[in-house]
Fold these 4 entries.
Entry 1:
Amino acid sequence: MTIKTIIVDDEKLAIQGLQLRLEKFEDVEIIDTCSNGREAIRKIKTLRPDLVFLDIQMPGFDGFGVVQGVMDIEPPLFVFVTAFQEHAIRAFQANALHYLMKPVDEDKLADVIERVRQRMTEKRGADEAEKLMNVLAEVAPEAAEELQDGAADGSDRFEKLLNVKDQGKIFRVEVESIEHIEAAGDYMCIYTGDNSLILRETMKDLERRLDPRKFQRVHRSTIVNLDQVRQVKPHTNGECFLVLSSGAEVKVSRSYRDVVARFVH
């Protein structure tokens, strides 16, 4: 699998620096570079890259303008590269895979490339599965129907183990052992009852990897493993607390009261 990549930055040295850092990734192929937003929109639509490293502050069209300018096609994965921390929130609002601060840190770049690989593998797997189902529907409709019924619960596509790099070590965490997860800026704090680990990932990305029948958002910054809930404690203003297996208590905001309903019979 080759990751076809375009780098967009109005600073030539920044492009060259990122090119050098990307050379160690054998599956990353830089197919072009651009120095302004207008050129970037044209080349993205023409070359259809898998990944675009996109500077935010540029004359004319800025990075966010480039994203808006290619929404009439299936857009690539975007990674914003910026010297300004305040652009981070807008980067995620623009559906960027991630953002990197200048100067680009090699370890963080490696994390981004690994995330890109995962996204592309997931997408490719989904595309291939859809093609197979279309063929089966034509030549063997009964087999296609059985396949669809067998995959109805979709449990196999969710993670059973999470690889968490924390303090220079990689921990393999069984998903069923996770009690709850809390967002802390660019990181996710994963609690397993007797341990806690830090994972660099967005809440949105992590939710996609976890089975929603077991893992539910109970607050804008908290996900809970419903199998670990032992008690529901009412609180004021329609809010409540979930008491987990370890004794930890997690607040459920009013916006997520429907999650609690499944515990009340």
Note: The mean pLDDT is 80.
Entry 2:
Amino acid sequence: MSSVAFETQRAALADVVAIPVTPFAEDGSVAPDTYRALLRRLLDGGITTLTPNGNTGEFYALTPEERRLVTELTIDEAGDRAAILVGVGHDIPTAVASARHARELGAQMVMVHQPVHPYVSQAGWVDYHRAVAEAVPELGVVPYIRNPQLTGARLAELADACPNVIGVKYAVPDAAKFAAFARDAGLERFVWVAGLAEPYAPSYFSAGATGFTSGLVNVAPAVSLNMIEALRSGDYPAAMKVWEQIRRFEELRAANGSANNVTVVKEALASLGLCRREVRPPSRTLRDDERAEVAAIAAGWSI
């Protein structure tokens, strides 16, 4: 893979990295037509980087067949309108198979979900990501880091072995730790994506991030784009005005250990008539009083 192609991928990460929801039909299956419509709304709203099979897409509640379907629908619907960063994970053979499937369909990048395992050593973290990255050397690889124990030196070690590791979705909720980690790994070496979305974007941008992930973008693409425009221009007061606008919505998502992270986004979409509110266990739909508050917030964004 030429460095020119990776530069294109790096540019796509330095942006609003949208994590689409996965809508379900009345019978509980994935709803392809609704999903395509939600993708079109993102694309028409100016979003140019999509992560199918992210956490907002309920990655861990989907079957392998459904994850493949979501990847296929996203790449087909987006065409050349967006860069596609496919979420992959689980055991190494499953993650590798998903990454190769993404490559066959024409995706440019894969995001490797944090290994879900009670025992993660730092050297084993490198081994896990190296197995995926080496299987698809043509694709840009983006580790999704949620482990506060991981050091920047380990990421640098991974990238020494795998030059296609080009970006990082950093989701440890600690801005000082992020600043240190990025500098230990190599601030200019990777594209740093603030992996905790709009609430953390201003502080993480001040420390070196140039992109942020978003689930809120499903509901209000213009709001997310307003924030990144402010951050790119270094206008932190303007970025914080957006932060204030989205604060309550994101607090509802983050409450109780992010129990309703996806639920709140789907509820907002349901209030706008864009998809059903259902989520899969272990997530759950909102109480009636919470539904009303989410609907009021979404309506207030005049979408």
Note: The chain is about 50% helix and 10% strand.
Entry 3:
Amino acid sequence: MTPTRLPRTLVVRLDSSGDVLLAGPAVRAVAAGSSYTALLCGPQSAPAGRMLPGVDDVLTYDAPWVGLEPPPVTRAATRQLMETLTAGRFDRAIVLVSYHQSPLPIALLLKLAGIGRTAADCEDYPGALLDLRHRRRPRRHEALAALDLARAAGFELPHGDDGRLRVLPPPRTTHLTGPGPYVVLHPGAAVPARAWTPGRAARAAAALSAAGHRVVVTGGRAERELTARVAGRHALDLGGATDLPQLAGVLAAARAVVAGNTGPAHLAAAVGTPVVSLFAPVVPAERWAPHGVPHVLLGDPHAACADTRARHCPVPGHPCLDGIGDAEVLAAVAALTDHPADRGEHTERGAAV
């Protein structure tokens, strides 16, 4: 590689859509210092990857060490990945992982594919698998940790980039939501421990509606039964009615979004919409709270499930989230929107950042 030629760089983030969105600032830094930037992610998070500014191509690999239902290890899938990576003629790779994950399985495959220089956060001894073994700062937010790694690898955000989450401009969705202001309630999550139970979410929709908010309930195709129950007679049900760019459009036009610690919360942050974050402490909020937008964290951070990474609530009644009262929800929305119906005693920002 000559000194004047910018590298062809691969960014790896093999986790969920939310994790890919959190990688956005690091991707933009890499893109600013590369002639070509590709993102390698899982098939489920590819739509989020295609929405990130700076990405020239999205490659997919269903890694057998990642995800809620990882696929079996096969020679065919590994061979296909190796052929794709080799054809990409990448000079460098940056592997983004969460604090509890190892970058070494994919680092081995990157080396075998001939990628010249690989960087990652890594606590384990990497041997010859990493050219830059970086150590993340304690309790660092995932978005900032990824950006720290990019900087350590020689990539800086371009001048004027504030480092917040960002996606390509979403489409207008007034034909889905109708005119007028609204609040989004997103009741679902891939990890059930990180969301309200359906009945609790339905009561929240009713309370928001009674307080004068127009409520729009969002969810994926597999969540139509959930969104219909939550919307009831109080809200507009858009369950299964949007793809990811359209969901971004719905969130972008909302005054605030009420959601658990899940991809749509990070998508809301990426389009600049304030978030009421229903945050179960199964993972630390300091690492996964909404990034770069006003937000309020609701939930019991000291619940018995704290730091367990549990997928299903181990405590009867799901008290860390279902114990959040309607008054707390209304106060949080009011703090972020200054909604006239909720002014008065519930206007303090509280845990907002």
Note: The CA atoms of residues 182 and 214 lie 5 Å apart.
Entry 4:
Amino acid sequence: MSAPRDDEFGFAPDYDSPVPYMQRTRDYYAAIGYTTPYRWAHYTEAPFQPLKKPLAQSRVTIITTAAPYDPAKGDQGPGAAYNGSAKFYQVYDGDTSKEHDLRISHIGYDRKHTSATDSGTWFPLPQLLKASAAGRIGKVAPRFFGAPTNRSHRVTLDTDAPDILARCLADKVDVAVLVPNCPVCHQTTALVARHLERNGIATVIMGCAKDIVEHAAVPRFLFSDFPLGNSAGKPHDVASQAQTLELALMLLETASGPQTTMQSPLRWSEDASWKLDYNNVAQLSPEELARRRAEFDKQKEIARGNRAA
């Protein structure tokens, strides 16, 4: 008997599933000559801090991996190539009562399928302020916080996460919404979320890299099956961004225990073939891999110099 055809049962193609970013990243760096596999943070249990008060009475902050725009650091605009000069290496904070120009040129988001023209897809402060004005949350905390995207687990665990916790405690934060962009960003925010929860602050991660976040075992995760760089919703689609934040707030209220993942019902597009592209060595020629290795080495040198400075 012949196998039934997918369309008879309405099956989706096999590639229309969450992108395996951990394996893609391992394969990609091996293909450009880095043969030591990266060790992704892995836990099998997670801390969990229930809400101490209703969201309508809670003070909420944002933790982002986006960087403040600095015109002295080269092209950081929409469509900019990866820009190691724009990376930051210490936690920073910003006044939530002011507008901010945060960008993601310094990290490995999906440059083929993401325009990076709308910061609302990676920095949901406007939506959070609307939620506060509507009484959905109590207050937006006076500051948001920037988490450096460190490949070093030790730096994130021993330096950056405690720094963010101290600033949250100083601002009397009840809840933190964490918004990563690149693969390592998702690991960074997972480690920070775990640290905050262990110290009494409820968290939810809004992200696009399901495998990385779940591998690190976090308290609450809202998964949007979108290209990297769109954790807070679709670009230039305010309704999508509002719905994504509302789903995250609902998850904060309804999760009964740790390692609770909610998947957004929103789809990026009907054609899911975009999932085949990001750092997929099967689709890259030897010449392209060599070019990328040279560019990666160049950016490493730039970043090394900035870190030393």
Note: The longest helix spans residues 286-308.
